[in-house]
Amino acid sequence: KRSEAGIIWVLWLTYGAFYFCRSNLSAALPGIESELGYSKTELGAILGALKLAYGVGQLLNGQLAERYSPRLLLALGMFGSAALNLVFGWATGLYFMLFVWACNGYFQALGWTPCMRVAANWFPLKSRGKAVGIIGTGYQTTAVLTFIIAGWAAQTYGWRGALYIPAGLLALSAVHMLLLLREKPDETGPQRPPEGASASVVDPPQGRGRFTETLWITLSNPSLWLLALSLGLLNACRYGFLDWGVSHLKEIQQTGVASAAFKYAVLPAGGVLGAYLSGWASDRFLGGRRAPMICSLLACLGVLTLLYDRVVLTGFEQTIGVLFLVGFCIYGAQVLLVGTAPMDLARHGTPAAAVGFVN
């Protein structure tokens, strides 16, 4: 149990650290717009390039995570993303910035699927919801820190500071991962099911099956297509808040970028609570059924999104409250859609491939 707890917290920080170099651009956007003169449409193209590359990367890297060392893939993703954030800070040309941020999207996609491969190795179905829920609070916590740190850095050092300082934090986290992460309970011998778990609950060792075989197993699973559609619609809402929220608050409430970023840190703070409680509750009260929890949270999110634009005009407390609830609903549903549910529904021991496809 102690080693399982240790793995949870290593994965908690490892994947959470990726957000230092993904959510940070939100705090840099006002400075880029002001200094370089790019329109919101052009900046939106840069943001969209990351999403497209991230999606392609998830599909490919989910397959790779079934075959190659998760530690190797995570190291490539973390050091690569940190380096690309440095390069982006030196850039001024629109198309070069778009290219660099798209490359960052691919390296960012080397984070989640290897982490879920490790989680599938360590945790059986009956405890997976809670474990992934805890891991999911990591990227909410680091998203809070990212808004605060990147907002402060942009205010103090200019928009490039929002790229450079988070890059250093991600590189340090990569070193921590390489030192402490164990990929499965017994890395020197064959993997065995935990006591009381059936053999089917624990996924087979990596390296089995051809790329085309695991890809077909994944694509022919209709349940994964439903999860993917749900996640796509959720992310349209999620990234609207994450990418444009700081700029929106800065303009609507006539405040500085640091102040707007500080307020927006409340959204992932609500996500910490949502991510943990949704995984725990679906294990405890729903017998591992994720769909009822996901549907309830998505319905609440729809209502809150419609209310948001009016609420932020009313004052500080109302803004903080609605952002907290929005974060709770977004990440309560998202952590189930990106990790727990695809792993539960994966066929023939292909959890990382299933997670990658849905993402």
Number of H- or I-type helical stretches: 15
Q: How is the biggest beta sheet arranged?
A: none
SSE ordering: HHHHHHHHHHHHHHH
* Strand residue content: under 5%
The unreliable regions are: 188-207
The helix fraction, in percent, is: over 70%
- In whole angstroms, how far apart are the ends? 30 Å
C-alpha geometry? globular
Query: What Rg, in angstroms, do the CA atoms define?
Result: 20 Å
Q: What structural class do helix, strand and pairing data support?
A: mainly alpha
Number of strands: 0
Give the rounded overall mean pLDDT. Answer: 87
Summarize the structure.
The chain has about 350 residues and is mostly helical. It is built from 15 helices and no strands.
Helix and strand arrangement:
Layout: H1 2-18, H2 25-36, H3 40-64, H4 70-90, H5 94-108, H6 112-122, H7 125-157, H8 161-180, H9 211-219, H10 222-252, H11 257-264, H12 266-284, H13 291-311, H14 316-345, H15 351-358
Describe the protein:
The protein contains 15 helices and no strands. The protein is mostly helical and 359 residues long. Helix 7 packs antiparallel against helix 8 and helix 12 (266-284) crosses helix 14. The radius of gyration is 20 Å and the shape is globular.
